[in-house]
Design goal:
35% of the residues lie in helices and 26% in strands. It contains nine helices and eleven strands. The chain has helices spanning 3-14, 48-56, 78-90, 99-103, 109-116, 143-154, 182-187, 202-209, 224-237, and strands at residues 28-31, 39-45, 61-66, 93-96, 120-128, 131-142, 159-162, 167-173, 192-195, 212-215, 240-243. α7 links the parallel β8 (167-173) and β9. α2 (48-56) packs parallel to α3 (78-90) and α5 packs across α9. The longest helix has 14 residues, at 224-237. The radius of gyration is 18 Å and the shape is elongated.
């Protein structure tokens, strides 16, 4: 598959053009590649270690959730230069999808994680400039048992802030840094919000607004989308793929 065709397909399937996002996200193709695409690497972050691994594993394009340009325009020196040099010397293309991948109804981080947890999805949740960030739905489980279910699903520890009811029936899932959405969850009548992380003050937000909040880790909640997208590309276009796993523990 040629790179132009893959990029056009991803742009359309993920709806990246015009999707609201942070200014430094730069969704879409971030670095041009020089090889036909037969093998795709997928990862959460465009870290130096991830780029090196993608090259070592023979990937022709790397698809990530967090791209190269967080922090804005800066001189191409130090680690920025090293990353650019790795990509350009190897002819490795880099494609990034941030909020479009969080919110996608089929391969998005939030939807895939929600389904893995057994949530019966009912609709979108979490507004960012008119676009949704995640999904909400139904399940029926004691609060503490949901902690165990999430830990088993993401493969790591989960922090529960038990501000809501002892039994969870209505839950929102927004992967990554969704702690700022506790107020919106409360207004929408959610018993629980499952996300990656939040600021210190969100403990009191959860306790005082009556919402159970589950912090399952930013990285751990955002591995789902890139893997689901890679499987979709394999199914639709026959592309081989590999998940490059560099967990941060955060």
């Amino acid at each position: 598959m040629d790179l132009e065709s893959l990029v056009a397909y991803l742009d359309d399937y993920l709806g990246v053009v015009g999707h609201p996002d942070y200014a430094d996200a730069h969704n879409g193709l971030q670095v041009w590649g020089t090889r036909p695409v037969g093998r795709v690497g997928v990862a959460v972050d465009a870290s130096e270690a991830t780029l090196a691994a993608a090259i070592q594993r023979g990937c022709d394009v790397l698809v990530v959730h967090h791209g190269l340009f967080w922090g804005g325009a800066a001189p191409l020196t130090g680690r920025r230069y090293r990353k650019a040099k790795l990509l350009l010397d190897a002819g490795l293309a880099l494609y990034s999808a941030h909020l479009p991948l969080d919110a996608h109804p089929e391969v998005g981080n939030s939807a895939v994680l929600a389904r893995a947890l057994g949530v019966e999805i009912e609709g979108p949740f979490g507004d960012y400039k008119g676009a949704s960030l995640g999904w909400y739905g139904r399940l029926d489980t004691p609060r503490e048992m949901l902690t165990t279910r999430i830990e088993e699903t993401v493969g790591g520890a989960v922090r529960l802030i038990g501000g809501g009811p002892a039994r969870v029936r209505k839950v929102a899932v927004v992967t990554g840094g969704g702690g700022s959405l506790i107020g919106e969850a409360a207004r929408a009548g959610m018993d629980a919000l499952i996300t990656g992380e939040g600021a210190h003050h969100t403990y009191f937000d959860a306790m005082e607004l009556g919402v159970n909040v589950y912090y399952a880790g930013h990285y751990a909640t955002e591995t789902w989308g890139v893997r689901a997208l890679a499987l979709h590309l394999e199914t639709e276009h026959g592309l081989a793929w590999e998940f490059l796993d560099f967990p941060t523990g955060l």
